[in-house]
């Protein structure tokens, strides 16, 4: 289990998915060590990860500003009054 965590920590700078996969593997090994049925609990964990990813993407899409090109006020000059 510690070897899996060490490899996951070593690969973490490359991609966060390696860290998540390593933690999930370590959790399944730990659950198996304590006698719990890891194969039946892992789909619940993976579903929770997928739901969290979908909610974070939805929040990011709704909160982050999106550039929509040039605006109409920036494209045409403002008329000035002549006395």
UniProtKB/TrEMBL annotation:
It comes from the Bacteria. The chain crosses the membrane at residues 16-34, 46-64. The keyword Transmembrane helix applies. Keywords: Membrane, Transmembrane, Transmembrane helix. This is FUSC family protein.
